[in-house]
Amino acid sequence: MNNIQSHEYSIPYIIHPTAPGRHTSTIIFLHGRGSSGLELADELSSSKISGPPDANIFSQLPHVKWVFPTAKPRFSTIFQEEATEWFDIYSLSDPSERSELQIEGLREAVLFLRGIIDEEIEILKDPKSVFLGGISQGEATALMLLLTGGYSLGGFMGFSGWMPFAQQIQNETMTDSYRIPGYLNSVLGTDRETNGRMEYDTPILIGHGRDDAYVDSALGSQARDILQDIGHKVEWREYEDAEQEGHWFKEPEGLDDIVRFVKEKCSNLLLE
């Protein structure tokens, strides 16, 4: 088996605001397994969205900086090959199976991505101006980042993903939802001071295709339910007939939902 420890994370791909002179918000968005930050950005730039014929998601949010990190290459146990992925996983039909395989990658990803979030918060001087999101395995990774980091962000957006360690989190929620950050940081080895009791005030948008052939929509709704049980306000969106057998953003509705959500949640976003 290959050991991928020698690989370092590459510099994230960045799309700067298209409106000159004003950077009001940052969106950090994580790609799925086998992709990259650049590939996701390219795909989003050509994905359909409502508006003028030449519009895309970037032109519809002209004051937003987009940050697209890229995962490390690591060995995939189930496929027996190296792939660009945030963490190893044994089964997408049952992500809890051999969940110990996920820990190393999630620990490395969380520690790496915290640095990106912290830098953007420092630039903008306001955590509510920073948004976090991801698709597929990117959503799963971003959820771990949100729940372990003590962040109170402008918003979270996840599509076609799932909640890692779902059953364990549900067990903790039944006891005391405020124990979840400590529990997950203990599991992952990502201890971080969260200044006491967590405030679950990051608004969340979760979207999933009913006909997703790779990650069952039931896993998306399970993530929704867990987040609601913790105390988050979650907007749930279901789609049909998206590209890639339902495992992609529904065009244009899914991208329209992102634009609407960001505009609604970021009070200092200048609209044109």
Automatic annotation (TrEMBL):
Coiled coil: none
SUPFAM superfamilies hit by this protein: alpha/beta-Hydrolases
Gene3D superfamilies per UniProt: alpha/beta hydrolase
Superkingdom: Eukaryota
Cited PANTHER family: LYSOPHOSPHOLIPASE-RELATED (PTHR10655), PHOSPHOLIPASE_CARBOXYLESTERASE_THIOESTERASE DOMAIN-CONTAINING PROTEIN (PTHR10655:SF63)
Protein name: Phospholipase/carboxylesterase/thioesterase domain-containing protein
InterPro entries for the chain: AB_hydrolase_fold (IPR029058), LYPA1-2/EST-like (IPR050565), PLipase/COase/thioEstase (IPR003140)
GO molecular function, one term: palmitoyl-(protein) hydrolase activity
Residues covered by the Phospholipase/carboxylesterase/thioesterase domain: 21-173
Family to which this protein belongs: Belongs to the AB hydrolase superfamily. AB hydrolase 2 family.
Signal peptide: none
One GO cellular component term: cytoplasm
Lineage: Eukaryota, Fungi, Dikarya, Ascomycota, Pezizomycotina
